[in-house]
């Protein structure tokens, strides 16, 4: 393997493994759901609802894809149920993604330096690092998609189809991107169409039941719940929504800046480094004008570049870094092309430029991610609740009733309870399992209740709620977030 690529992978591994158990500061509600349900499948063969989650897992009634859940099972079996077990598959996949990106670019442009620059930029990308340190299904979606592209370019058609299918099965964005991208590949490489026929025909009998499952009504619940469209409106209205959402993913302020605690962004940084902007412009111009680049390579990069934001454009909360995650690779490839052609034309040693930009990037990224991020965004990862739960476990003896709020800082607290308690899945199934996982549903697990707190009507017991749920003057034990702000209070009512 190329020694520079080895060095890049070592750097990438450090940036993704360093403090993995404490940055992000604790398990998010999605990580807790993935982790405990994987733990349940490992122990009992079924999830919290008593079902085997073959394609989708009901979760909080949003039917998340199960691929990443299954990837975590070996790690939970080996390391037990902890946040590192849930995040490690994402880290490993991200390293393979960087490796695969290098080989994709090498095949497209036949220049090792462009491939190395692309891998390096992806390795230090704040967008890629942030999401690859989360135990989230989008990591499997992106990695399998990139593997599909690589094996397609290597003419390993069957393997490419397998990975593209896995990408669709891993995250809802794949259901939009992969079919359109696959059609685009067939058009771009239509001269080789005869080579595709046999692999596609052989794959059809296996793909039909998979497609039937992933596009089934129950599996589409999440899409329906997050769709940006109002189908009671005229088509022209939905068309404007789609166009506005799509174009928002190319807005410079979203890509290069951070107005505050924006989702999936490192504090004080955009998804891309500001210094990348001029090289992106140069890369696009060079890609359009240079004639020594295979026209099919150009079309593939632009196809990827323009299709990747589409899944996020048909959903709410656009622009959305997670749903448009597949964009991160073409952005870095285009930046690498701009860097390469700038260095080549100015006759500047590429090593000096690469080292300078690397040091500048790390100087920006390291303190903002490893120091500022866990402090400023601890509420997003239920940090205060992660500290409150052990306190409750130590005091539960002799208490007949324990009530957790299920909103704001205690949102989906029932799942965090199962996760931090390492609650035995067999016992949970005997108790009836989860009755409903809806966004605002109440739950009961033995003497534990997870519901809104109405303090004036509550009976004696131990209560864990948001500070705002208790009247002024009610004393209790306060739990703070990483900034020192008290956000949760534990109160015993006698």
UniProtKB/TrEMBL annotation:
The chain crosses the membrane at residues 66-83, 114-132, 144-166, 172-189, 196-215, 270-288, 300-318, 324-341, 348-366. GO terms for molecular function: pentosyltransferase activity. The keyword Membrane applies. This is Glycosyltransferase RgtA/B/C/D-like domain-containing protein. GO terms for cellular component: plasma membrane. It holds the Pfam family PMT_2. InterPro entries: LipidA_mod_glycosyltrf_83 (IPR050297), RgtA/B/C-like (IPR038731). It is found in: Cell membrane. GO terms for biological process: lipopolysaccharide biosynthetic process. Signal peptide: none annotated. Residues 77-209 form the Glycosyltransferase RgtA/B/C/D-like domain. Keywords: Cell membrane, Glycosyltransferase, Membrane, Transferase, Transmembrane, Transmembrane helix. It is a multi-pass membrane protein.
């Amino acid at each position: 393997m190329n020694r520079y690529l080895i060095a890049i992978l070592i750097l990438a591994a450090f940036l993704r493994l360093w403090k993995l158990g404490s940055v992000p500061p604790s398990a998010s509600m999605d990580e807790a759901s993935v982790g405990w349900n994987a733990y349940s499948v490992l122990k009992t063969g079924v999830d919290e609802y008593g079902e085997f989650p073959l394609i989708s897992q009901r979760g909080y009634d949003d039917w998340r894809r199960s691929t990443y859940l299954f990837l975590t099972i070996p790690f939970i079996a080996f390391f037990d149920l902890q946040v590192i077990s849930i995040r490690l598959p994402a880290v490993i996949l991200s390293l393979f993604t960087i490796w695969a990106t290098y080989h994709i670019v090498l095949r497209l442009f036949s220049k090792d330096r462009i491939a190395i620059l692309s891998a390096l930029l992806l390795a230090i990308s704040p967008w890629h690092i942030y999401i690859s340190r989360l135990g989230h299904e989008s990591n499997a979606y992106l990695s399998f998609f990139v593997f599909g592209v690589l094996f397609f370019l290597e003419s390993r058609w069957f393997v490419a189809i397998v990975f593209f299918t896995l990408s669709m099965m891993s995250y809802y964005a794949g259901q939009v991107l992969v079919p359109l991208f696959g059609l685009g590949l067939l058009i771009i490489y239509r001269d080789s169409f005869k080579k595709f026929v046999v692999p596609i025909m052989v794959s059809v009998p296996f793909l039909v039941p998979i497609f039937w499952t992933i596009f089934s009504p129950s599996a589409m619940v999440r899409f329906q719940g997050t769709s940006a469209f109002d189908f009671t409106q005229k088509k022209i209205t939905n068309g404007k929504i789609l166009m506005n959402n799509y174009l928002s993913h190319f807005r410079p302020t979203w890509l290069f800046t951070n107005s505050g605690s924006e989702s999936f962004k490192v504090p004080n940084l955009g998804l891309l480094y500001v210094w990348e902007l001029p090289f992106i412009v140069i890369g696009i111009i060079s890609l359009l004008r240079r004639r020594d680049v295979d026209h099919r390579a150009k079309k593939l990069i632009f196809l990827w570049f323009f299709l990747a934001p589409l899944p996020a454009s048909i959903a709410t909360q656009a622009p959305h870094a997670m749903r448009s995650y597949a964009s991160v690779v073409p952005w870095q490839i285009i930046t690498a092309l701009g860097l390469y052609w700038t260095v080549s034309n100015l006759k500047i040693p590429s090593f000096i430029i690469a080292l300078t930009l690397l040091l500048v990037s790390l100087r920006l990224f390291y303190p903002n991610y490893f120091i500022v991020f866990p402090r400023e965004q601890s509420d997003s990862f239920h940090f205060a609740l992660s500290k409150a739960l052990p306190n409750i476990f130590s005091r539960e003896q002799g208490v007949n009733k324990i009530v957790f709020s299920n909103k704001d800082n205690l949102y989906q607290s029932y799942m965090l309870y199962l996760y931090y308690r390492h609650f035995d899945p067999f016992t949970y199934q005997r108790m009836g399992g989860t009755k409903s996982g809806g966004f605002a549903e109440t739950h009961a697990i033995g003497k534990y209740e997870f519901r809104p707190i109405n303090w004036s009507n509550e009976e004696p017991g131990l209560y864990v709620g948001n500070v705002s749920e208790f009247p002024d003057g009610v004393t209790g034990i306060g739990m703070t977030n990483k900034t020192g702000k008290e956000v949760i209070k534990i109160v015993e009512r006698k």
